[in-house]
Write a structure and sequence with these properties.
Layout: E1 3-7, H1 16-29, E2 34-38, H2 44-48, H3 60-65, H4 71-74, E3 76-77, E4 82-85, H5 94-98, H6 107-112, E5 121-125, H7 132-140, E6 143-149, H8 158-171, E7 177-184, H9 191-203, H10 217-221, H11 229-232, H12 237-251
Parallel strand pairs: 1-5, 1-6, 2-4, 2-5, 6-7
Antiparallel strand pairs: 3-4
């Protein structure tokens, strides 16, 4: 059975989608079968793989809310080993449409049963909020990866996220565990980044990945070309960091 990892942090702009897309690319390069689920209505993971969400006729919305639509009907192939369950503009209304549904928190988990044995890794890119879509992502997962930006307010809201994870573990998904935090947008020349780095290590001494993602122009440019950093510039510092992170996660 595949590992299902939710990439989550309710703060925006911390590198969730960048981490999801590029981690997936390097897991696939390592020969792993990977499915990325774009549960963010903004659809950045989908566009990051080169898909135009505006012209897709089906996506995660249909899987969550139309019983006759299966994951396998909607999945798009980025490469042989790397598939995407895309977001479409309709997903913006899913949180409201799910409210009155039976087992609303379990919709994604239930739909993944048919494909979980087909993949080694399923990565879920969550929106920057703790609403019903994110809850679906967390309930469907068995592991959580938390990108944390190396900036002054990095720890702001992290306590709320960890409390939400505890609530979900206690009430909805008892097997959920925190895989760890990955530090993103790190600038080794910046004393503030170093201070935040040390502060986060004090909070998570045993759950910080050794691979630290640098602040890197190439990482920022790649999505505008609909490419992963592996396809855009695999010699860049950002690419090397995500390759190392993928190896850490494979053996974790």
């Amino acid at each position: 059975m595949g590992r299902v990892i939710a990439i989550v942090n309710q703060k925006g702009g911390v590198g969730k989608t960048t981490t999801t897309v590029n981690l997936a690319a390097y897991l696939a390069e390592a020969g792993k079968r990977v499915l990325v689920i774009d549960i963010d209505p903004q659809g950045n993971a989908s566009s990051g793989f080169g898909f135009d969400t505006k012209i897709l006729t089906q996506g995660l919305y249909e899987v969550l809310l139309e019983p006759q639509t299966t994951v396998q009907q909607v999945v798009k192939a980025h490469s042989d080993n790397l598939h995407l369950l895309p977001s479409t503009p309709d997903l913006a209304g899913a949180a409201i449409d799910l409210v009155g549904q039976h087992n609303r928190e379990f919709r994604l988990r239930e739909n993944l049963r048919e494909v979980i044995d087909l993949y080694d890794f399923i990565l879920i890119d969550n929106p920057p909020s703790l609403g019903l879509l994110t809850i679906n992502g967390l309930v469907a997962a068995n592991e959580i990866l938390i990108p944390v930006q190396c900036e002054y307010y990095a720890l702001e809201g992290l306590g709320q996220l960890l409390s939400t994870i505890d609530l979900i573990r206690d009430n909805l998904q008892p097997e959920l565990k925190v895989l760890g935090a990955v530090l993103t947008m790190h600038d080794s020349r910046n004393k503030l980044s170093q201070a935040v780095f040390e502060e986060i290590y004090r909070h998570f001494p045993h759950k910080i990945f050794r691979s630290v993602i640098p602040r890197n122009v190439k990482l920022a440019e790649a999505p505008s070309f609909g490419k992963t950093i592996r396809d855009y510039d695999q010699g860049s510092p950002g690419a090397r960091a995500y390759r190392r992170l993928s190896q850490e996660i494979i053996i974790s």
